Fold these 4 entries.
Entry 1:
Amino acid sequence: GECIVQTTQDLAVVYAKIERHQMLVVDRSGSMTGPSGAVTSKMEAAKAAAALFVDVAAEDDRLGVVSFTGDTIEPDAVLYGDATLEHNLQPVAGNRLTAQLKIAGITPGGWTSIGDGMEKAQESLTPQSTPASIDHIILLSDGQENEDRCWSSAAFCVPVGPLTEDRFTTGDGDDTIVDAIAFGPTADQALMQDIAATTDGD
């Protein structure tokens, strides 16, 4: 629909169609294989949620998919090397099935670099961002980060490079909204809530 997106001067506004740019960021670390004895693993639950999100996304929105893991080696030889751009940020129309197939092919293993995943997603959002777009990351993870890039400095994630939180508060990601969806009974709820609260997400 038509929405107010920008004030230009007193008593003047610009009307434009809001376009949502959405990046699904999926945790594919080894911890997503659990919990032990569960009918559905965290990985399968996250993939199902991601596929459902693609299913209901509007045709004229743009959507991309990133997955992340960790290899215990820092710094990475390639910037954000623990994250993979599975599906480029592009219109949903005509690309819905491709995105869902990419999600279906994600398999778990390795450590957890949440920062690499989020920053890789922001790399896709920044060049396509416009005054009429809403930049949005949907983070699907158990929050058990243990490898740089770290969202914040914590006992289980020792930063080697800049903190990802800084990019989303004072850098090119400061207008990006992050909805953080936690999976599993041992999820780091505090971390996931902090990511969402800091970025005005849920």
Entry 2:
Amino acid sequence: DYLDPKKLCSSQVSDITEDPDNNLWIATYWGLNRFHRKEKCFSRFTPDPHDPNSLSNKFISSLHVDQFGRFWIGTVGGGLNQFLFKSKTFNHYFESHGLSDNQVYDIAEDRHGNLWISTASGISRLNPKTDQFKNFFNDIEIIDNLLLSQVITHDESIYIGGTNGVVHFKPSDLDKPTKTLPIVFTDIRSANKTIRPINNKI
């Protein structure tokens, strides 16, 4: 009975994770569920149009608890959410905040605590300390804009699977400064005639 608030709100489960207090969280296509192991029942979190601090979208694609114990929820259509344990409310991150797309498919974390978010329009990196996004499109050879899953390996390489295969890169390569090439004049013309410099001056 999916109308029972103490039961799983959908049989369509997309992800499962555990928080620092050993609570089990289940993502579904109809909302977020927390499983209470002792009581063997669920509590649920779903969007409430009258509550701006509720879950932004019922279609949940991915869950991630970061190294600092923060709980992140990816939704398909409602961007990225962060669940605040004390208040049981949600912070929201949308395209208007810098996210590359509101359709989020997967979340991974590097050793610096940055979140790498696969979306329908590339990949976004969120620095949770500053709440700043940086989006990558042409910086990496994205084989398909629709990026569905990813993993960060022990050597800090990111492997991303999309609808057209897998691509990988290292985040450190994206932050290398681009080389500035000197400007060299090979010829200067006026009225279609070459101007010759005198004492290195024109």
Entry 3:
Amino acid sequence: SWIDVEPDIATIASGQTQEVTVSINPPEDFPDQTIILGLRAVGDDVAEGSVKIREGVVGLIFATIGTDGKASGTLADFTVAKRDFIDPSATFYTTLTNTGNITLKPTGTISIVNSLGKTVDVLELNPDGKRINPGQIRTFSTTWQSSLSVGVYSASLQLDSSSAIDGNDSEVLYLFPWWFIIVIPSLLILVLILSRLVWRKKA
């Protein structure tokens, strides 16, 4: 085998740590690409009544082999989901495709701009550092919450060049929260009543 794990068997007591070395020695004709290794650690069987339970954890190791790996991807879709225009929150869904042969970890921003051209917020895309494997399509969700925003806004997606993914996009948001819908008609009614009272006094 060209993958060695040392030690391959170890006993780790509760609260202790164990360093594990993974050595990868691929054959010369192995194509340049990212491979994913799963490192699994399991515990002893624990009997609960008539059932035996074995707990374990799995860690993933991403290893890029060779120097000619191709890092590339495309923006498949960028959409915004809102329940209605009264809801002050908005969730953006960014769908990306890995068209290369190595794993990508996309980064970027979503800028929220009001109708006056002022940037009111900047959201981070993929803050958890999730990866896209070669040939995989993955959707990232980003939520914006602002209870005081009113009017028409634009949301612009900007992918970092280091992500090796081409494409930017934008969406339009219409935000008219419940307090705006209640307050504005109430103010109009109040102005109408006051203007009528003033008119009657003058008459």
Entry 4:
Amino acid sequence: ACPVAAGNERACTTGTAGSRALALGLDPGTYFVTLKSARPADVQVRLDTYAPVPVTVPMGGDTCATAISVMGDRALFRGTTMGLPHDYRGSCANSTAPAAVYQFRLDRPRRFTALRDSSFLNVLYLTRDDACPGAALTLSRPTCTLGSRTNIDVPLEAGTYRLFVDGLSGTGGMYTLYTQRDLAASPAPREPPPSPNDRRSTS
């Protein structure tokens, strides 16, 4: 499991094939990627870089009715939960802290990624818009994450969804939220190439 914002670590993720780790605002320099596996395996690593995204300072968004709209394939928000009322309590965390609500719509299946970074312990969870706040989605990957740096990376069907930026144990403060939706759902795991030490017969 990933530690909570440990040392100089800029990104961390766990999972299987297709897992993604996002790091925001990297300065020029040298960086290292460390991979740990439960068992020996061949792996493939791909590095993608993106142009800067304009920062949006959200206003309001403390209720489902006034949810902040997430537009475009990539978006970056810098906001605060301080001063917002405690309207909701998510099904995945017994929070008594104020929360900000975001909403987005997908017109077709997409891979959706959200990364939140803050100076306080928080909970980030994803629901559908058929209830408010509703229960965190049940998918093959987590849709509710806790910590000071939290992320969600899941394949979603077409529809309307809400993303809740909440605190833990009554905490709140400034946060950064980055969202990204890719053209395709999360790629299916690929069969690794045969190892040079693999002596299995092909007959």
